Amino acid sequence: GLFFFIIAMLKIINFNFLRSFFLSGEFFIIILITILFFHNFFNYTHYEKSKKTRLDEKNLIVKIENDQQLFNKNDEILLFDTNIFTYLTIKDFKNFTIVPNTFWTSRNFNIVENNIINSFNILGIDKNEFINIFKNEHIGNRIINNHAVKYFGFKYLANNNINFNDTDNYTKKENEIISLTSPFVTQIIMPQGELLRIKNRFIKKKNKITKPKIIILNNNSEITKKHRINMSEYCLSYANDTFIVYKNILYCK
Fold it and tell me: What percentage of the chain exceeds 90 in pLDDT?
């Protein structure tokens, strides 16, 4: 933005700029650019002060950077927050219980389901909460399933040209909406059979596959804000208004 502002200034500053300059389009353009520049500049300088979550992210990152014994790059970490996940991957952390977005991983759907079931069991999520997380939400003439698209990508894409395994295993209302949805519209709908299958798989999966060393949770997240961590297995390591970090009881003093 600053570079563009300077180039614009150099463009209009010439020996003939006085000639009707203040009535020209260039004058209004430079005024507009100046306003936009200072607007963005002041927003940037005050961004952290006005965004509590960003400050909490920064404080958590400072904790991670300063506690090298706790945050070892080879240890398993469970988290759902995409910003913290991005930071950790940039810092070469590679061992995650679950990847918070399927587009960032080469894990197949069977592994992704195992990761979800394992992670949700660790959080203490029950079967009703599990179904509620993946339910299809009706918004006007569209159906949205944000968590399904996050973890399963376009697997459950549904419109009048394609749907999951060419099934009609949707509710009557969902089938009506699907029949009216253009192929050019991205709409993710989990069929009722898939919801039931994953629910049953979640219910039967009683034992945890892994017990990650570190659990990082966002208290504002729909999934993690109601967590019920087993405190006989984990202890509180760090907390601020947005994030809370648990560590495996084996590493608690």
Answer: 37
